[in-house]
Amino acid sequence: MARLVLKFGGTSVADLNYIKHAANLIYQEHKKGHEIIVVVSAMAGETNKLLDYCQAVGDVQDAREVDVILSSGEQITSALMSMAIQNLGLKARSFLGWQIPLKTSNLHMNATIDHIETKVIETYLSSGGIAIIPGFQGVSEHGRITTLGRGGSDLTAVALAAAFKAARCDIYTDVTGVYFCDPKITKNSTKKKLDVITYDEIIEMSKYGAQVMQHESVSYAKKHHITVQVLSAFGKEIGSDLKGTFIQNKNDTSPQLSAFVINEQIIGFTARIKQKKCPLISDFIKTHKKDIKLIFSEKNQNHYDYKFFISMALKSKFKSFFQDNKIDFSTITSLIECVFIGSQLFQNKTKLKKIKLLLSQSHLDEKTILYSKSKISVIIPNDKKATLIDTVCSNLMG
Fold it and tell me: For residue range 353-373, what is the model confidence (pLDDT) as tens digits?
């Protein structure tokens, strides 16, 4: 017998039929003699709908009240899940964040977990019950409901796994595991599910847009040595069948290529400067060094072009700088960032040679390729995406 935390994301509990299916998966695990803690997200789309309500009320939005509203999505799902499990003949009940309690900081809408009390849940588990906990929420020292930011249910699940010393934290989602490349954009013949991937590799993937798990939750799992499994909520397999992808430290530490990630939230700027060295630009680059993904300059007939590539979220900040300082600039759109990720990737000379050859054969601008210890990124026009994905998946997997 083991203690398990099972987390079901929004697509896994999107309607009552999905909730009933998830309840059956939980039933199968419980039948094996395991103690079960379940974490649920709000039904798919529910949080966005609640946020729209908040914004429609008016310009004044008290973050404390917004948290009360946003947390209700998970609260509804937890109660429905509890009743679905009860209808299968098992003992189950929901525990809200303040009932556990799951104590957080006072930062509303993006709180951090401070401490989880275990007595109430331990008592319930020892009685044979299944504890259903709404993810994404906790309670501040002032007794106010708080939320943990986007993807916070992942963090709830991992934190509970650490607090209750669970053998494993299973993340049920809409894919069968973690793939070398997003299975939604690759051909069937080139889809490859990974058996194991490291915490650091998943963190890197999430930074570049892969929506596997919230990266804070993976950092928490790494810190507390929690074994995480990502698997599909839509099949008949349960976590104990061990058919998903495990996120953990690998026994095999040899350099390798583990994933290829596409980040579409990127934009470029070309700033035209008359002289090669411009103190204004240099100071700006130093100040925003962490924000700039890639920068290089090119000499033209009577000026220099500085090309900046940044996250789409920073577009307004950079645009305002150029406008405020009367710098001639243009925007580069329809870009994507392609990232090769792997532990000690740069030490795998064979794989590195293959990647360089593939990029060269794809006629990409060498100045847009950036090499580092565990990843290689390249910025390309969006119209080259499909060809590059197919080429990479056909030649570099395995």
Answer: 888 888 888 888 888 998 888
